[in-house]
Every structure is written in C-alpha cells, then in structure tokens.
Amino acid sequence: MQATLSKKTIWAMSSYSFLVLGIMVGFIYTNTFATEVLQIPAQVLAGPMLIAKVIDFIFSLLCGSLIEKVQIGKKGKNQGWINFGRIVVTLTVLTSMIPTTAAPMIVRLLVLAVSYCVLNSTMNMVQTAYYNLVAIVSGPNPANRNSIMVNQTRLNTIINFVTAFIPTLVTIMPLGIWNYFIVSLIFVIPMPIALGVIQKQADGMDLRVGEGGVVYQISVKDMFGTLLKNPMVLSIFVTQVIAYISQYIAQTQGAYYWIYVVGNFSLMTISSLVGSICGIVAGLFMPKVGAKIGKKNAYFLTLCAAGIFGILNSFLAQKGWQFLIVTTAISTFFMYISSPYIMLMYLDAGEWYLNKTGKDTRGICVGLMSPPLKIGMAVGGTIGLAMLAATGFYPGFTPDPTWVGNFCRSTYMIPGIINLCAAVFLMLTYRMNEQDAQRMAQENAAKIQASIAAAGGAPAEGAPAEGAPSDGQE
C-alpha cells in the first residue's frame, strides 16, 4: 500500500480551498452584481448567461481530453494546466466584476457573459487537473485520499467564514460601484499562490502528455462511454446533476431574500457568519460520521436534510430572517457529513470499473465531476432567474406579501423537493460499499505494480516509498 503522506504534503494539497476564496464573489454574486450594479433586468440577463453556461458545459466535456493531448509548460500535463489556469482564473474573476455601468446594455452583457464563460471553462481544467494530482500524489492508499479531502473540507470552513463578510463589504465600502471589484481583488490574491504550491507537489510524479499508453488518451467519446457503461459513476453523476440544479435555483434567488424581503442586504452577513462558524465546528467532527457510515449513506443523509430544511424554510423565511439563520446553522452540520467524500465516490467508481473490466478509466471518472456542476449552473441558474422574473421581480420594485410568499416557495420549497428526489435516486442506484471500494483499489494497485514490474519499469521519481497507512484524519 502507498506510504502515508506527510502532514506538510496533505496540507499543501488541501490548499486548493484558496481557489474557493478567490472565485467566491464571481461565482455567488454574479447575478446580484448584474441586476443591482449593472442594472440588467433578470429576464434580459437569463439568455446570455444561459448561452455562456452551455458553452462552459460543452468545454467541461473536453477538459479531460485536452489535459491528455495538450501540454502547457515544462512540467507534467496536470501541473502545466494548473499553472496556466491560475493566471487565467485570476484575470477573469476581476474582469467579471468590472462595473461597466456607463456602457450600453449589450456591452455590459457581453463583458459579463464572456468573463463568466472563460472563468468557468478554465475552472474545468484546473479542477480536473487538481483531482488527477490528488490521485497521483496520494497513490492507492485510501487514507491518503481521505486525509487530503477531509483537510480540504476543514480549510473550506475557514474560507467560508472569511467570505461571509462579502455582503457587508460590498455594501459599506466607500467606492460605490467598484466595491465588488475591490472585494474580488482582495480575495483572489492567495489563490494563484496556493495553486502554485499544489502543482509543485507532483514534481517527478506527474506524467507528460502521451505517457501511460493509449488507455490514457481520453476523448469525448471515451467520457460518454465511461458514463454510460459504468453504473456506479452514472449513479453519482445523475445524483449530482439533480442536486446542483436544486442548489443553483436556490443560490440564484437567495440574495434577493435579504435585499427585498428583509430589506437589508448586509444582514446576509449574519446568516453567512452563523453558517460559517457552524461549518468550522462541523468540519472537525462531521466528516468522521461520514467515514463511519460510508460515503453513500453520508451523501444520502445530506441530501435528505437539504430537502427537509428547504421545505421548512419556505414557511419559516416568511416569518422572519432569524428562523432562516437557525435552520441554516443546523443544516450546515449535515452538509459536512458527506462533502469530503463525493469526489472519492467518483474515484471508487473508477476503481470498480477497472476491477471488473481491466480498463483504467479512473482519470475519466474524476473528470466527470465537472459536468454535473455545469449542468446544474446552467439549468438551475436559468430556472432560478426565470422563476424570479415570474414572481414579478424587477430591480428596485416594492414587494408585497403575495410576492414574498411566491418568492419563498420558489427559492426554498422547490429546491427542497428536488433534493429529496436526488436522495431517493442515489439510494436506489449506487450499489457499492466501503469494503468493496477498498478491496478493489488495493487489488487494482497490485495488478498495476505487477504489470510495471513485468515490463521492467520502476516507480516514478519522487514517488513515496511503501509504508503503513494513516487513519485518514491528519
């Protein structure tokens, strides 16, 4: 079994969380920035953003093939794309928040949509390359993989605490329409540094383009083939599509609750802070619950909780924002039961397919993490904007009780019901337990090592030596 990674390496790989910090303003507050600063009506915004999201989705299908066939830089194939991506992501995050208020409507839409499209397309490359490096650096030891993902989740809790101040910052800073840009600039600075640290961890281990044989030459056809032929990856893929649609319906409309129902956007900071503080506590303990009950059961429990609290919030949010904060705090604990392990479910699905067929599509399975997010963003974001417009919303309007009721149902109840559907689908279709996943990973690693030895090969330079496994909780 692969040696236990050092704490330094585990935390270095976990610093991917700083990418979340860097993109948070652009990802979460694009619609709010567009309607409140750029003064673009929701129904006008929906069309161009849908086109951008469709392009982004198509690009997400190509990212695995591009990583395998196009080398950027002098290091390994994944390292090069991370190094390139960190520059592009930084620039596009800032471009998307430029207040082009003096320009015609078409220019404002074009700048926002193109920046969004380039940012998200590049994120496809960075995310796929990163998870490939996680598998390369951690090796077949499940504890190494768990340690990196659990620590990344814990670091995310700190990041979420910091980003909880975004609504207040963009409200109280003295630069007016430039507030979103300045906040983005402050938050994006650590991200390229962290990605640089990550790509260095794979020195001597990351393969170059074309190395590894034909099995590693990934095409779009291969990605669809893997998705359709592997029932485990298809199960988690569809489950995530459903869950992301729910998430982005709620997320697209969520900020408007504080602006128009509560009447004070800065109060959203209190909700975010409470959720972040609960996340810090939950990140310490709840992943252990997920490890104990298994990845599938953990994700099922998270989805059920999201569904129940969504339906409950559709009533409580009308009674007062304080109730919404309480339910948000409680639901946060359920989220951290499964959040470190979803990527590992894709990797387990790849191990299952390799064990059953002898075909190594683990890298393809990891690459298939991106499309569900893109589908969810495109479909959920578009539905969210359409539902917001259907309630009678337009920038600067005065809400009445009827509008508030309709808004709360569309923002909370509908996403809640969708989450419950995702939970049922996962439980019925994902059929692999923890013992099978660990056994298959170890059997696959042994076969690969035997194949390398038979061919007269040797472990890659810089690969860790053999050693005892960790407990996965560095």
Characterise this structure.
The protein is mainly α. It has a single domain, classed as Growth Hormone, Chain: A (Up-down Bundle). The protein is 77% helix and 0% strand. It has helices at 7-14, 17-28, 30-37, 42-69, 77-96, 105-138, 142-163, 166-172, 179-188, 190-200, 220-229, 231-262, 268-293, 295-319, 321-338, 342-357, 362-367, 370-390, 401-429, 434-454. The radius of gyration is 22 Å and the shape is globular.
The major sheet is characterized as: none
User: What is the mean pLDDT?
Assistant: 82
Number of helices: 20
Unreliable residue stretches: 212-217, 457-474
- CATH level-3 fold name: Growth Hormone, Chain: A
The termini sit apart by: 18 Å
Q: What is the β-strand count?
A: 0
Find the CATH superfamily.
MFS general substrate transporter like domains
What characteristic shape results from the CA principal axes? globular
* Helicity range: over 70%
Structural class: mainly alpha
Quaternary organisation of the protein chains: single chain
What is the strand content?
A: under 5%
The whole-angstrom Rg is 22 Å
Query: SSE order, as H and E?
Result: HHHHHHHHHHHHHHHHHHHH
Count of discrete structural domains: 1
The assigned CATH architecture is Up-down Bundle
CATH class call:
Mainly Alpha
